[in-house]
């Protein structure tokens, strides 16, 4: 190991670049940026937000005078709409920009688009982008707070927060729970953020899927890793029946149709045959197991319809918690206490 | 009248003559006159310029077998004027220019253009590399002999591999009459799959598409087999993996006549740079993640690969250091990692980077100098890379102890794209002479002194 250390030359990147921020505390880019304390703070204000959502008049002035832009370079129903609703309930002004309806169509670069948005005096930019790391590019270059609403295969922190919150609502805590994530782990931003968040909060995470969709580089070479990553404590199980045994939560991920054309899978049919969450497989889990899915679902592929809409499914609850979590996230980013800290 | 430059009391290292001594060097009319140790009596002409090289290294000018000058076609990234001056500041006196310009260098006209432009406004010697195939498309061979006559010093489709094995075989065979090498960028496209960084734990954490080491090694292995089959003159560009090194080691043990190069960044930086840090602190907060200045092809590899590259250089399996200087505009890099252009602007930091290996005790200084002077000259069958009597006076003088902070805004190169910005390097070029004339000189640190 000594030799390895020696071979790597110490570099301190970017110490002389003023536009590089080292303190990301005014952004929500991924869960690795958050402490367990931060996560608990967000969850406790999520409880308060849920109460607001149950009122007849769903409006509080918490973010009055703040302006928020949602900047979506990928199609989205629940994430974009729930951010918009979260902002509006908190009295912020929300502007929605999508790549189809903006200068992006005319070839404007992401950098120039966000600089334009910044020049209009925006407080929070919520970005979804097909390229991993896009929110980091923005966070480096604008003064506004940046929320990552899903970047490529990298991270989707608010989805993971709402998933964790939903589980806690049922079990009281995440500690010691066996949580099985099934599907395309390799390309899933939902899986990555959940792995970071769930392990941080003490859950036991099992990932399950075909070898072609598992991050083998992280899983096979533990001894070669120079650092501890959240993936080190994850268990891999390619046999769905073994994975499901005694599970407290099973989370099915969306299988992208393109995985077939890139030869990660012979067919969606074979995927369903091996990994679909159906009744028989669900019976192997604990009796009070929760079934989750970040949506949008391919019913009949990664999850059978009867399970998706069955008694153990909390998929709709995930959606309603999504609004509350995003309200809490927006509030957390703009809370003055946080800025002082 | 004779023009003379007298460089006195430097540590002169010339691996072509196995020289490493404290001594004096006299240049007369653009040629090396002699090297003597400091005790010798010397007689120099009256108007001779005298330079005190005490505590400095004096060696043959560096030769870069792999660089991108971008002209014609991409003058916003670099021009022959800015690129050659940047190279001079980095200690280079001769550079080979890759043909991925626009238009590509696949005709006599483009080769001739680059050559003449370099002669007119270039600050150092420029040797164009011609395309192996028309349009760099990997389908039909260019008129290789015509390009050679126009001045092509080697052939490459750089940036692209020559994917078709038969075309590679035919080109290697066809060129047997010459001593001009084919330089191949080794990448199996079907495995590379549009990846943007090394396939490994960092790419997995960051959700970036990885380029497998095997993608490079497949093509290195194929090329070695074809070199053996044809007896052709093959040089493998920028190797980056421990597996490639093993293949080349075996090939050399079997006396297959191939050569290879490594870049300064593959000797000193690893994939963890993409995290914006070097190791240890992945779970901490930082937004330097996805620093596009670390995006380069082949990608920065693992710690073990970097270690292998260093060992390969020291043991001589790797023949030379080449920069793969690849300047880009700010727009090319100020975008997402997936969109960013591949490449690092390398001329001005190359020496300082690789001298860290000497500082750490991993590589001998003479190995480094040999791999940047005499060894590349050998590959090009050139008379450069030496300070022997009568050789053209291409000389580099550098201070191996000078520490400096890399400020890419002050680069002469138009390409400010380097992950080393803000880092401290040790070792700085103070003067570069081409044919006995200063192409670059730090006059403050290297003034003319009174002769006596």
Order of helices and strands of chain A: HHEHEHEHEHEHEHEHEHHHEHHH
Largest sheet of chain B: 9 strands, mixed
Let me know the number of strands of chain A.
9
Number of E strands of chain B: 19
Question: Could you tell me how far the N terminus lies from the C terminus of chain A, measured between alpha carbons in angstroms?
Answer: 38 Å
Radius of gyration of chain B: 21 Å
- Work out the helix count of chain A: 15
Q: Any idea how many domains of chain B?
A: 2
Helix content of chain A: 25-40%
CATH architecture of the largest domain in chain B: Alpha-Beta Barrel
Rg of chain A (C-alpha, Å) = 21 Å
As an assembly, this protein is: heterodimer
Shape of chain A: globular
The amount of beta strand of chain B, in percent, is 15-25%
Portion in helices of chain B:
25-40%
Number of helical stretches of at least 4 residues of chain B: 14
CATH topology of the largest domain in chain A: Rossmann fold
Polypeptide structure, described:
Helices cover 40% and strands 13% of the residues of chain A. In chain A, the strands form 2 sheets. Chain A has a 5-stranded parallel β-sheet with strand order 7-6-5-8-9. In chain A, helix 3 (78-89) crosses helix 14 (315-334). Chain A contains 15 helices and 9 strands. The two termini of chain B are 20 Å apart. Chain B folds into 2 domains: 4-56 and 436-449, Urease, subunit C, domain 1 (Roll), CATH 2.30.40; 61-392 and 400-424, Alpha-Beta Barrel (TIM Barrel). In chain B, 28% of the residues lie in helices and 23% in strands. Chain B is an alpha/beta fold and 452 residues long. In chain B, the strands form 3 sheets. In chain B, strands 1, 2, 3, 4, 5, 16, 17, 18 and 19 form a 9-stranded mixed β-sheet that branches. Chain B has an 8-stranded parallel β-sheet with strand order 6-7-8-9-10-13-14-15. Chain B has 14 helices and 19 strands. The interface between A and B is large, with 58 and 56 residues.
């Amino acid at each position: 190991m000594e030799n390895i250390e020696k071979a790597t030359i110490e570099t301190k990147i970017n110490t002389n670049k003023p536009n590089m921020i080292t303190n990301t505390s005014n952004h929500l880019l991924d869960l690795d940026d958050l402490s367990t304390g931060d996560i608990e703070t967000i969850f406790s204000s999520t409880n308060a937000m849920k109460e607001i959502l149950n009122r007849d008049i769903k409006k509080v002035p918490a973010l009055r005078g703040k302006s928020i832009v949602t900047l979506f370079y990928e199609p989205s129903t629940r994430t974009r709409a729930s951010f918009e609703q979260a902002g509006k309930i908190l009295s912020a002004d929300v502007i929605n920009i999508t790549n189809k309806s903006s200068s992006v169509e005319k070839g404007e670069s992401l950098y120039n688009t966000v600089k334009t948005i910044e020049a209009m005096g925006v407080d929070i930019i919520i970005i979804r982008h097909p390229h991993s790391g896009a929110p980091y590019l923005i966070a480096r270059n604008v003064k506004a707070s940046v929320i990552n609403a899903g970047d490529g295969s990298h991270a989707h922190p608010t989805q993971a927060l709402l998933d964790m919150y939903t589980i806690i609502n049922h079990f009281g805590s995440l500690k010691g729970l066996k949580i099985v994530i099934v599907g395309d782990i390799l390309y899933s931003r939902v899986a990555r953020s959940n792995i970071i968040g769930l392990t941080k909060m003490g859950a036991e995470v099992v990932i399950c899927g075909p070898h072609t969709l598992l991050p083998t580089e992280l899983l096979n070479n533990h001894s070669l890793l120079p650092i501890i990553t959240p993936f080190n404590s994850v268990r891999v199980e390619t046999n769905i029946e073994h994975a499901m045994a005694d599970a407290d939560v099973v989370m099915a991920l969306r299988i992208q149709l393109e995985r077939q054309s890139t030869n990660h899978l012979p067919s969606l049919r074979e995927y369903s045959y091996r990994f679909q969450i159906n009744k028989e497989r669900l019976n192997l889990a604990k009796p009070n197991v929760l079934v989750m899915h970040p949506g949008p679902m391919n019913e009949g592929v990664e999850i059978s319809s009867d399970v998706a809409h069955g008694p153990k499914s909390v998929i709709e609850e995930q959606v309603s918690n999504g609004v509350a979590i995003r309200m809490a996230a927006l509030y957390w980013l703009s809370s003055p206490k946080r800025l002082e800290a | 009248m004779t023009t003379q430059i007298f460089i006195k009391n430097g540590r002169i290292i010339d691996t072509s003559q196995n020289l490493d001594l404290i001594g004096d060097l006299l240049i007369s009319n653009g040629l090396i006159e002699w090297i003597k140790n400091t005790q010798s009596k010397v007689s120099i002409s009256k108007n001779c310029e005298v330079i005190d090289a005490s505590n400095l290294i004096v060696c043959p000018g560096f030769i870069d077998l792999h660089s991108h000058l971008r002209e014609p076609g991409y003058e916003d990234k670099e021009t022959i004027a800015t690129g050659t001056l940047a190279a001079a500041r980095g200690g280079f006196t001769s550079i080979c220019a890759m043909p991925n310009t626009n238009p590509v260098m696949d005709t006599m006209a483009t080769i001739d253009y680059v050559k003449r432009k370099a002669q007119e406004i270039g600050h150092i010697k420029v040797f164009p590399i011609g395309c192996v195939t028309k349009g760099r498309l990997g389908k039909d061979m260019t008129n290789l002999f015509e390009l050679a006559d126009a001045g092509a010093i080697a052939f490459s489709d750089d940036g692209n591999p020559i994917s078709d094995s038969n075309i590679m075989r035919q080109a290697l065979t066809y060129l047997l009459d010459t001593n001009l090498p084919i330089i191949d960028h080794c990448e199996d496209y079907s495995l590379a799959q549009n990846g943007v960084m090394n396939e490994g734990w960092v790419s997995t954490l960051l959700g970036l598409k990885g380029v497998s080491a095997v993608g490079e090694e497949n093509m290195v292995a194929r090329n070695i087999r074809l070199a053996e089959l044809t007896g052709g003159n093959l040089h493998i560009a920028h190797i980056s993996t421990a597996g490639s090194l093993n293949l080349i080691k075996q090939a050399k043990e079997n006396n297959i006549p191939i050569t290879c190069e490594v870049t300064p960044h593959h000797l000193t930086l690893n994939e963890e740079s993409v995290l914006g840090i070097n190791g240890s602190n992945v779970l901490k907060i930082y937004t330097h993640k996805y620093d596009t200045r670390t995006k380069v092809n082949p990608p920065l590899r693992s710690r073990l690969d970097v270690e292998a590259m260093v060992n390969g250089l020291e043991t001589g399996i790797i023949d030379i250091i080449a920069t793969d200087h690849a300047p880009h505009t700010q727009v090319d890099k100020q975008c997402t990692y997936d969109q960013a252009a591949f490449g690092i602007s390398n001329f001005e930091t190359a020496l300082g980077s690789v001298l860290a290996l000497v500082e750490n005790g991993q590589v001998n200084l003479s190995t480094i100098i040999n791999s940047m002077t005499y060894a590349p000259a050998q590959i090009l069958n050139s008379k450069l890379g030496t300070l022997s009597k009568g050789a053209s006076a291409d000389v580099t003088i550098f201070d191996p102890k000078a520490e400096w902070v890399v400020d890419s805004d002050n680069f002469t190169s138009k390409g400010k794209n380097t992950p080393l910005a803000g880092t401290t390097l040790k070792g700085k070029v103070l003067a570069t002479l081409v044919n006995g004339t200063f192409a670059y000189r730090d006059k403050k640190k290297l003034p003319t002194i009174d002769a006596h």
